[in-house]
Design brief:
Number of domains: 1
CATH topology: YaeB-like fold
Structural class: alpha+beta
Distance between the termini: 26 Å
CATH class: Alpha Beta
């Protein structure tokens, strides 16, 4: 059974920031390929939610969170998610070399104003 995909506001902000970075530094084609790779990753994980490894952070708020790399050449970026009975709740998308526990806990207000996603979602 495929889970319904839910993307948090913080994850939309992460996608927007990364899309804009690719747009400014690598061009439209790469930015669009990044979004397509994210969409493919989300669909894959929604079908097989156990693919992502269960993460073990000290912060209680991060209990039960899993991660899976974005498919293709964007594999350094990780999709952080939790699953419910019928939903895949995507919480963040970020480069794996970041200070993950701190970044996962930061509030939406700390993320450059909570801009809307590149596809107008948000």
């Amino acid at each position: 059974m495929k889970l319904r995909i839910s993307i948090s506001g913080r994850a939309e902000t992460d996608l927007t920031r990364q899309y804009r970075w690719y747009l400014e530094n690598a061009g439209l084609d790469v930015a669009e390929r990044f979004l397509a790779a994210f969409d493919a990753t989300a669909a894959k994980v929604a079908t097989h939610p156990g693919l992502g490894g269960l993460r073990h952070f000290r912060a209680f708020e991060l209990a039960g969170i899993r991660s899976f790399p974005v498919v293709g050449p964007f594999g350094a970026h990780l999709v952080f998610y939790r699953t419910g009975e019928a939903t895949l709740d995507i919480e963040r998308i970020m480069h794996g070399a970041r200070d993950l526990p701190r970044r996962l806990l930061e509030a939406q207000q700390e993320l450059n104003g909570g801009c809307r996603g590149p596809r107008g979602a948000g």
